[in-house]
C-alpha cells in the first residue's frame, strides 16, 4: 500500500507580516496532484491542520476545498487533530465526512478503533492518536500521572490490544502528534512540555509497522518506521535550512517500509544574514539572497540610522531586523542574553529565584514552579477547547 504522509499545514498562519494563504493554496494543489500522479492509496495528515482553534474564514474555505478535491479522487484520507487545532471543531461532521472517505480522528478515547483499508496483501489498520493534552485526557485513559509518555503509552496499549484481535498479517499505521525524543525542534512549534518534559521515547510506538508523526516542522527520520513529515511551508527563520517535503511511503505486504521524500513548492527561499550594516550592503557573497525573505541581524556597536529602509534597498523582502551589537564578554547585557539563550521557562524562573535570594530553589520549590507552569499550560488548553 502506498501512503502519502504530511502534517502541520497550519492553515491561516502568516509568516511575519506575509499572508501565506496563496502559498498554502499552492501546497494543497501540489498535494492533490501528487496523490493523483503517484498512485497514492491513502493520505495521512498528522495534525495541526489549522494554526489556531478558531481559524480565519479563508483558512476554513481552503480546508473545505481540500476535502472536496481529495474526496473526488476517491483516495481515502486519515487525519488527526494537533495541539493547534480545536479537536471538537475539526471533528464536526466526522461521521458524515467519513462516508466520503475522509476519516477525521479527533476523539482521544477512539484511538483504539482503526480505519481499516485493504490492498492485495490484506488489511491495513490506521490508528489515529490526536494530540493528547495530558491534563485533559488522563482520566479518560485511567492513568495516575498526567504526562505525555504516560497518556501516549496508554493510547498505544489500546492500539496494540485492538491489533491483537485482528487477522494475522494485518499491517498497522499510527498517526500521532507528539514530540518524540531524537527529533529536532524549530522556533515555530508551540511548547507542549508538562512537568518540564516535552518528549517521549520512540519505543512507545513499538509493535506497529509505520508511525506518521506530526508536530515538529522539520522532515526527519527517527527510525526507519517512525518519521516526521514536517510542515510543508516554513513558519520561522529557524527553518531556513529545512527541505520542505512529504513522505511517500510504500508499505509492503510483509510490513516492510520504503520511503521517498516529495518536495513541496517553495514560495520564496529564506535567508539569515548577520554583520554590520555597511558590510551587509556591500558583501558580493550575499547577492544570492536579494530575492529571499531575509532576517538580518545587525552587529553594529551603535544602532545605524534608518536600518530597515537601508537594508531593504538591497534585500527588498526583509521581514525581520534583529539588533545584536558586538560587545565585550563582560558587558552585563551580553551575560544576561547568554543566560537566557535556549533556557526553558522553568529554568529562567529558577535562575530568577537564585538571583533574588542568593540560592536556587530546592526540590520542593522546583516542583511548585513546575506545577505552576503546568497549570498555566493546562488552563490555556482548556480555553482553546472552550473557544
TrEMBL record:
It holds the Pfam family SbcD_C. GO terms for biological process: DNA recombination; DNA replication. Keywords: DNA recombination, DNA replication, Endonuclease, Exonuclease, Hydrolase, Nuclease. SUPFAM superfamilies: Metallo-dependent phosphatases. Residues 267-355 form the Nuclease SbcCD subunit D C-terminal domain. Residues 1-218 form the Calcineurin-like phosphoesterase domain. The keyword Hydrolase applies. Belongs to the SbcD family. PANTHER family: COMPONENT OF ATP-DEPENDENT DSDNA EXONUCLEASE (PTHR30337), NUCLEASE SBCCD SUBUNIT D (PTHR30337:SF0). SbcCD cleaves DNA hairpin structures. These structures can inhibit DNA replication and are intermediates in certain DNA recombination reactions. The complex acts as a 3'->5' double strand exonuclease that can open hairpins. It also has a 5' single-strand endonuclease activity. NCBIfam families: sbcd. Heterodimer of SbcC and SbcD. This is Nuclease SbcCD subunit D. It comes from Streptomyces phyllanthi. The gene is sbcD.
Amino acid at each position: 500500500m502506498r501512503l502519502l504522509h504530511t502534517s502541520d499545514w497550519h492553515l491561516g498562519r502568516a509568516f511575519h507580516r506575509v499572508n501565506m494563504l496563496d502559498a498554502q493554496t499552492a501546497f494543497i494543489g501540489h498535494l492533490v496532484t501528487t496523490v493523483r500522479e503517484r498512485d497514492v492509496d491513502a493520505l495521512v495528515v498528522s495534525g495541526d491542520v489549522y494554526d489556531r482553534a478558531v481559524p480565519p474564514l479563508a483558512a476554513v474555505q481552503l480546508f473545505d476545498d481540500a476535502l472536496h478535491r481529495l474526496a473526488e479522487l476517491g483516495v481515502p484520507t486519515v487525519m488527526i487533530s494537533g495541539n493547534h487545532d480545536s479537536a471538537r471543531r475539526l471533528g464536526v461532521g466526522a461521521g458524515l465526512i467519513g462516508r466520503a472517505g475522509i476519516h477525521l480522528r479527533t476523539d482521544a478515547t477512539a484511538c483504539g478503533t482503526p480505519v481499516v483499508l485493504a490492498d492485495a496483501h490484506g488489511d491495513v489498520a490506521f490508528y489515529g492518536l490526536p494530540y493528547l493534552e495530558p491534563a485533559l485526557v488522563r482520566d479518560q485513559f485511567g492513568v495516575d500521572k498526567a504526562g505525555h509518555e504516560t497518556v501516549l503509552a496508554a493510547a498505544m496499549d489500546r492500539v496494540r490490544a485492538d491489533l491483537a484481535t485482528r487477522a494475522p498479517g494485518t499491517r498497522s499505521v499510527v498517526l500521532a502528534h507528539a514530540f518524540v525524543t531524537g527529533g529536532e525542534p524549530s522556533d515555530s512549534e508551540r511548547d507542549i512540555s508538562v512537568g518540564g518534559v516535552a518528549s517521549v521515547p520512540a519505543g512507545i510506538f513499538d509493535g506497529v509497522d509505520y508511525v506518521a508523526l506530526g508536530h515538529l516542522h522539520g522532515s526527519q527520520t527517527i527510525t526507519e518506521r517512525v518519521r516526521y513529515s514536517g510542515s510543508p511551508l516554513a513558519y520561522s527563520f529557524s527553518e531556513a535550512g529545512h527541505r520542505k517535503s512529504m513522505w511517500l511511503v510504500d508499505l509492503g505486504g510483509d510490513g516492510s517500509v520504503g520511503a521517498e521524500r516529495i518536495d513541496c513548492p517553495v514560495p520564496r527561499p529564506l535567508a539569515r544574514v548577520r554583520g554590520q550594516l555597511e558590510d551587509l550592503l556591500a558583501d558580493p557573497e550575499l547577492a544570492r539572497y536579494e530575492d529571499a525573505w531575509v532576517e538580518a541581524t545587525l552587529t553594529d556597536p551603535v544602532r545605524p540610522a534608518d536600518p530597515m529602509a537601508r537594508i531593504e534597498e538591497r534585500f527588498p523582502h526583509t521581514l525581520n531586523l534583529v539588533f545584536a551589537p558586538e560587545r565585550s564578554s563582560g558587558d552585563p547585557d551580553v551575560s544576561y542574553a547568554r543566560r537566557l539563550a535556549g533556557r526553558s521557562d522553568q529554568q529562567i524562573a529558577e535562575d530568577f529565584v537564585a538571583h533574588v535570594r542568593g540560592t536556587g530553589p530546592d526540590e520542593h520549590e522546583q516542583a511548585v514552579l513546575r506545577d505552576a507552569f503546568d497549570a498555566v499550560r493546562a488552563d490555556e488548553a482548556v480555553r482553546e477547547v472552550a473557544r
